[in-house]
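Why does residue order matter? Because the sequence determines the fold. Keep that principle in mind as you read this record.
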Amino acid sequence: MARTRSADPPNGLAPLLRVRPELQDYCRFGGDWRAPHDAINAAQFHIVTRGQCVIERPGLGHIRLSKGDILLLPHGNAHIVRAAKADGQAPRPIMVDYSSAIRSKTTEGVEPETEIVCGVLRFESATENYFVSTLPNIVVLHSCEGPVVDRFRMIMLGIRGELDGSRPGGIVIATDSACALFVMMLREYLEEPSVRKPAEQPTFASLAAAAATSRTTIIHCLRRIAGVATPLNAMTRLLITEARRATRTTHRLNRSGAKHPNPA
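Structure:
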């Protein structure tokens, strides 16, 4: 039997998938290079549009990324992006050009081998703190795998083309494309069988079992991170926030004179 729209978890999580990327750096690196990133109070991301790189996290090892891969750090943890292969030389200095709406970073005196789009991702929902707290420290999408490869590749090529072209409106188009990219990325992550969805009406028992911990620990975490006492409180907050957003949207439409469709 086909699932109805209301019973489809991804549709139920739609309010949490409204994201706003801020493209900050377009990096073209070659040779041996290192780019440290401090911890910030926002999600950080890297989109590899060409070549390879390595992400180092203090005390947590490293992750190798290739062309078409996307890495999201939901909690903005400190990390280093570096060359996939060290050439034994001192890391090359990184030159920064502030002449455009997005910073251009390059390594001096060497042909670029790797291109990366970097920035921050903001969740537009007022309940973003609760949603982000449910995400792991790192989310990686290898877009060379799975049935979505062609769609991700086309969007990434579009982003790279707009940033390379320096045409009027290019940053706006690239940013909107990145927004679609991250919605698709989060959807892929949330649809993984191992990810527990809020639409499944979590209880203390189910959350404790999934996290292999105690009910007391779950209560403590909910109060510390989400500011609520129970899973039901958290879901209620999500529903109230979405209702407020819908009310504000309707109010703006009414003020603008937009016509509503006749009820069926």
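The radius of gyration is 21 Å.
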